[in-house]
Structures are given as C-alpha cells and as structure tokens.
Amino acid sequence: MSxxxxxxxxxxxxxxxxxxxxxxxxxxxxxxWQTIRFLVINLKMLKLMAKSHH
Amino acid sequence: MARIVILGAGISxxxxxxxxxxxxxxxxxxxxxxxxxxWNWIPSNIWVGVGQMQPEQxxxxxxxxxxxxxxxxxxAKALSINPEGNAESxxxxxxxxxxxxxxxxxxxxxxxxxxxNATGPKLNFGATEGLGPDHGHTVSVCTYGHAVEAxxxxxxxxxxMRRGQRRTIVIGTGxxxxxxxxxxFEYIYNVDHVxxxxxxxxxxxxxxxxxxxxxxxFGMGGVHIKRGGYITNGKTFAESLMVERxxxxxxxxHVKKVEAGKIHYETLDGSxxxxxxxxxxxxxxxxxxxxxAYDKAGEDITSQVFAPNGFMKVDADYTPRSFDQWSAQDWPxxxxxxxxxxxxxxxxxxxxxxxxxxxxxxxxxTQISPTPPRTGxxxxxMAKAVAMSICDMLNGADxxxxxxxxxxxxxxxxxxxxxxxxxxxxxxxxxxxxxxDFEKYPDYGRDTELTFGEIGLAGHWxxxxxxxxxxxxxxxxxxxxxxxx
Lengths: 54, 485
Prior knowledge:
The complex is a heterodimer. By secondary structure, chain A is an all-alpha fold.
C-alpha cells in the first residue's frame, strides 16, 4: 500500500492564514529573546498606563 | 462624617473600596455590599477550568481583608435604590438582603451620602435555551465554581479520549449579543494545551464559535497592529493561531438553543445550523443585576435610572445613532448619574452608550454582533477616578474632578494560550484607546504606536506575574498601592 502524500486541499478555512515559520515558533519560547520581550512589554504597558492617566 | 456605600466587591468595587479606605477611611464611613463572601481574580478562572489552578489560588475571603481596614463589609445582595429617600426620610438609601448564612434573607435599608454601583453583570444564561451549567448543557468559566465544574467535565472527556473515543469540543459565545470573547479565546487555547499534554489532541475536534464578524474582534471592532512592514488586522494573527493549533472556527453565529450534545445556531446570512458536541464552554450574554429604583413617593423609576439591559445610566450620550455617527465623545467620563450627583456606576455596571463593534443583524432581524467589553484595567481605572472624585466632593468640590473615559484610556489584555513556565505562551495585546477615536486617529481609530500584539513565553510570564501582583494588591498587603492598577 502506498503512503504517497495527497495534494493539500485548497480553498479551505485553514488554507489562507499565515503560518509561523520554525524560526518564529522557536523565538516564541527562546528564553533569551523572551526575557528581552518581557522587558519591552512591561515598558509598553507602562507607557500605555502613563497615557491613560487623568 | 459621610457614608459611602459601594455595591459590589469585584475588580471595580474592591478598587474603589481600597482607595477610599486609604484616603478617607478614617474620616468617613465606607460600606461594601457584596453577595459573595469571596473575591475572585476572574482572569485566572480559565486555569481553574483546565485543572492547572485550584479555586483557593484565585480567591480569598473578603471579610478577612476588610477586617484589617475601616471598611464595613456586608455580605448581602442589593435589591433596590431610593436615591431620593422615601416618605419618612429624605436621606437616600439602598435596600439589601443578606446572603451571609447567619442573617440569610434579612432585609435592611442602608443610608448613603455617596453610592458607587459596581455590581458587575448578571450572567444571563436564560437568554439562550439550554445554555449554562445550572439548567443547561454547557459549562462556563465565569465564576470559580463554574470553572471547577468545567474542569471536572473536561477531565471526563479526556478520559474518554484516552480510551480511544473521538470527542468534539466547542468553545465560544452562547448568544448573538455576548461580550467577553477573550475569556473563551483563552479557554480554547488552554484546553488545546492540556489535551496536548495529555497526549490526546489527535482525538479531539476543537471548534471555536462566536458572534464576532471575524475572529479577533473581541467586541472592540478588532485591532490593527504594525507587523512585518504592514498595518495588519488582528484577524490575521487570530486565524493564524487557530490554524497552527488545529482549531476550526465559526463566526457571525448566534446560538439559539442548546440540547444535550447539540447546538442550534443562526448565522448572519440568516441560515440555521446544528453542531454536535461532547463538551462545550459557552460564555453567556451579560445583563444588569436587576436593581430597582424608587422615588420619594415610592414610584418605580427603574427605567429612568437604568437602561433596558439593566445597566445604570451615567454621563454618556445615549442618543440613538447609526454607526457612522458614533463618537468617542459619546462615552462617559465621570460615571456620575445625570439625575443624582451622589450616585456613580463603574465597571460592567454602567450602561455603555452603544457597542464598539458595528451592530450587525441577520435577515431574520437577529442581532449578531458583540456588545462592548469592560475588562479589568478600564474597570479599575474608572473605579479609582470615581474614588478620587468622591474624595474631592467630600472636601467641597461641587462636581466630579477626575475622568476615566474608555475613549481616552488604553487597555492591556494578556490572553493565555497555554500555561507552562518554559513552554507556555500568551498573546499580549494592548489597545489605545479602547473605544476608537476616528477624529484623533482617522485611519484606524487607534494609536498604532500604543496598539500592539505579540505571542510568546513573555506573555505567559506577564499573565502569571499579573495574577500574583493583583491578588497581592487586592489583599492589601504592604505596599499594595505602589502596584499599578
């Protein structure tokens, strides 16, 4: 019995959205990069709160 | 000495109580009325709903915390407001009914000089036949008790899958006019995460169903963010994440009825559908808690004080307008009620002037579009602003001195997509302002420098940090007021 892959079905819901590359997925849990992002997110939130203050 | 009565001890009510106690608690009397004995950090209920947290980790006894303060805590449910007093006295009061077991059912009138209505929502499961854990066929994560039951049923489904049975899991909104899509969004990704951990993800069909026009609307009309050299709608990223996790989605859906194992829904094109399920968590629509209002003569003035959906009218512009006429200026600033200057409503309890997402109706005249969200950060901001205004009014100011319009403030939302200190992720999203202002930001209604989103482990750390920081703050532990709201 053949295990030949079939063509991916087009025009389906899952066909169109962008998919993350392996590099993007790796960076999402990279400790070094995410430590930097943690600091950046904190700064962005502080900026947001400063602008929201009345 | 004045008496300030706060109805509700959720995020907005407890925030107002914390600050009023700190600023004027020794000079004035602060009374908090809440039917619940416990405070609940609701954003973490989704982790209780997948068994990754216990209820004790997201709650604490309110009476124990208020015992350390000058706040007089009454475990009772507010029934009605007499903002002009009654025939015997011109002093305004609220009528409450105790839920404290020792005084259960006892009613009492509590007079006030200032009233803050922070009662939050009624979870209106009754709007959809068969919806909800009490009289229906779906579960909920809106309260910690509901979340415990949701996890119990989820674990049974996981056991079924371990025995080789395929299961369909449907998560989303249970009515065409729901808000709070974010909680369901978090829950579906956390369910996906625990199914993968249990090694049964391939046995589950996971389906998102919501009243949003597109995935990622969240009742805010969606967001546009800068990414990869483009300004892109959040729908792109929300759909990308769904495809990555193997989740199907149904949008523009109004759940009409739920039977055991079957959801009946209508879509915006007017067609009707059925969807079979084995486990379903659907968020209910929200309504006001059903407070009544009476004038001095005892006449019912509920319709003057509250909007038809039960939320309290404040200083918003409630003139009915079409979408193209909606303005950021319609949204309330001080949260003071127009007729009674000593009454305020904050958090989910105030009546929004109109939705944020454009109202959409099917050919059958069914409204299928989200109602506006009022998440934790704006709720706390408006509670603090009202507390500051009341302090100034106690000192002689003749009108509120502080504002917190949702059209002038931002909101941060950290949506967990899987809890683990090293492998977990969360979608971090900020929007500024919450209500789009197309006069200031003509292209997208929002500041694209302050509106951003990304997914990663840092978001999970942020969500975990916020969980502990806000519970620490709510427990009034040393230095609590240094933690931003």
